[in-house]
Automatic annotation (TrEMBL):
CDD domains: RadA_SMS_N (cd01121). Keywords: ATP-binding, DNA damage, DNA repair, DNA-binding, Hydrolase, Metal-binding, Nucleotide-binding, Stress response, Zinc, Zinc-finger. GO terms for cellular component: cytosol. Belongs to the RecA family. RadA subfamily. The middle region has homology to RecA with ATPase motifs including the RadA KNRFG motif, while the C-terminus is homologous to Lon protease. Residues 352-453 are annotated as: Lon-protease-like. A motif (RadA KNRFG motif) lies at residues 253-257. PANTHER family: DNA REPAIR PROTEIN RADA, DNA REPAIR PROTEIN RADA-LIKE PROTEIN. One of its GO terms (biological process) is recombinational repair. This is DNA repair protein RadA.
Length: 453
């Protein structure tokens, strides 16, 4: 018989150690190392099993490729992220911070699917059916083929599936469902593994698509064992600031499509609405040109979005000037301030600098460097740029303006929105880019050409 020794394992990645540790040595997660009994050695030799003729390995070119049919959910922005719609038999995990609108989005998906003739079972393990009904009434999501059940027991949920025989199952959320066959409390690693594995097996056996809601931890990662993300077919992240109405759905994993798409939504008093063209959400509505503003063309997934960057420069009375940012990376702004002072001759060390984006969007890509720098330069000189100017480019420590990715897509979006002057890597240096930008304030300049790749 094999010996059993007491050791400690990580519930996230399975890393094993003989001594307890507060932090996993493999995945660096805190508080995930627990004591467990692990068998060492082999109980008996593994013998080969004769494989039947139907299951014998075949050449890959002899295997027929069946096209995966996507089932449209009725929400185009949601289908965009999924790669065209929901695939029968797929398990989709939607995660997001509390209060961001996960349940509202999935209730809208359930309503659209039910309106299209599908039978939908919505299992809520966090609310009562009356609470979900009130929200559905407020968002106009009442459909006769949408069934609600408030259950936290896995066996009861399976019984509901047998009774209703739905075409789509929604479970809100997977961390609040437990099984009597597994140890631990609901939300624990063993319970989450058991519940997820059982639901995924039901999904594959019955060709039933399942949407699971997942909680997140303080650092934004999905709560529970990392195995949960490996088991499901699609992992979606629902993002947004609760202080603003804008929401984004991003795909971190998709076995049936690309992970580059981004879906845009807006929270309203009547629920959640998709935003097919978000080009005007991140631009100010002022009719008079104001100094300290510059527009960049950011890329979210495969979508080009115009984003206005605003800057404010105030003479500082403190020994340490303030650097306050919102929607952009603070360390990148600090670097750009140093480059502007050293390479463009702007004495910014004695000023408080405030930088923000319009509309609550967060832009962290290097392609927004030039727009941030030009907005700061405009605020410093108190000279506004022309409304038809946009800036795209990455700035190095040497002051060089480098070409941003997806340049053709950005230039096409800028032309569509009426930005006739685009300052980019063809300017060569930050000082030249500042000069070209200020030239638009007094006279019309020719559009700065974008190199073809």
């Amino acid at each position: 018989m094999a010996k059993t020794q007491s050791n400690f394992t990580c519930t996230e990645c399975g890393w094993a150690t003989l001594k307890w540790a507060g932090r996993c040595g493999e995945c660096q997660a805190w508080g995930t190392v627990v004591e467990a009994g692990q068998s060492t050695g082999s109980l008996r030799a593994v013998k080969p099993v004769r494989v039947s003729e139907a299951r014998i390995a075949r050449s890959i070119i002899d295997i027929e490729s069946d096209s995966v049919a996507h089932w449209p959910s009725g929400i185009n922005e949601f289908d965009r992220v999924l790669g065209g719609g929901i695939v029968p038999g797929a398990t989709i995990l939607l995660s997001g911070e509390p209060g961001v609108g996960k349940s509202t989005l999935l209730l809208e998906v359930a309503s659209r699917a039910a309106a299209g003739g599908a039978k939908v079972l919505y299992v809520t393990a966090e609310e009562s059916v009356n609470q979900v009904r009130l929200r559905a009434q407020r968002t106009n999501a009442l459909q006769p083929s949408l069934f609600l059940a408030a259950e936290t027991d896995l066996a009861t949920i399976l019984g509901q599936i047998d009774q209703v025989k739905p075409h789509l199952l929604i479970v809100d959320s997977v961390q609040t469902v437990s099984s009597s066959l597994s140890d631990g409390l609901a939300g624990g690693p063993s319970q989450v593994r058991e519940v997820a594995a059982t639901l995924i097996r039901v999904s594959k056996d019955r060709n039933l698509p399942i949407l699971l809601v997942g909680h997140v931890t303080k650092d934004g990662t999905i709560a529970g064992p990392r195995l949960l993300e490996h088991l499901v077919d699609v992992v979606l992240q629902f993002e947004g600031d609760r202080q603003t109405s804008l929401r984004f759905v991003r795909s971190h994993k998709n076995r049936f499509g690309s992970t580059d798409e981004v879906g845009c939504f807006e929270m309203t008093g009547d629920g959640i609405a998709e935003v097919a063209d978000p080009s005007g959400l991140f631009l100010s509505r002022g009719k008079v040109a104001v100094s300290g503003t510059c527009v960049t063309i950011a890329v979210e997934g495969r979508r080009a979005l115009p984003v206005e960057v605003q800057a404010l420069i105030v003479k500082s009375s403190a020994p340490q000037p303030r650097r306050v940012v919102n929607g952009v990376d603070a360390s990148r702004v600090a670097m750009l301030l140093a480059v502007l002072e050293r390479r463009a001759g702007l004495a910014l060390s004695g000023y408080d600098v405030y930088v923000s984006t319009v509309g609550g969007i967060r832009v962290t890509e290097p392609g927004a460097d030039l727009a941030i720098a030009l907005a700061i330069a405009s605020a410093y000189k108190d000279r506004p740029f022309a409304g038809s100017l946009a800036a795209v480019g990455e700035i190095s420590l040497a002051g060089e303006v480098r070409q941003a990715s997806s340049s053709k897509q950005r230039s096409a979006e800028a032309a569509r929105l009426g930005f006739s002057t685009v300052v980019d890597a063809s300017a060569g240096h930050l000082g030249e880019a500042v000069r070209l930008a200020f030239a638009t304030a007094s006279a019309a300049v020719e559009r700065v050409a974008i190199p073809e790749f």
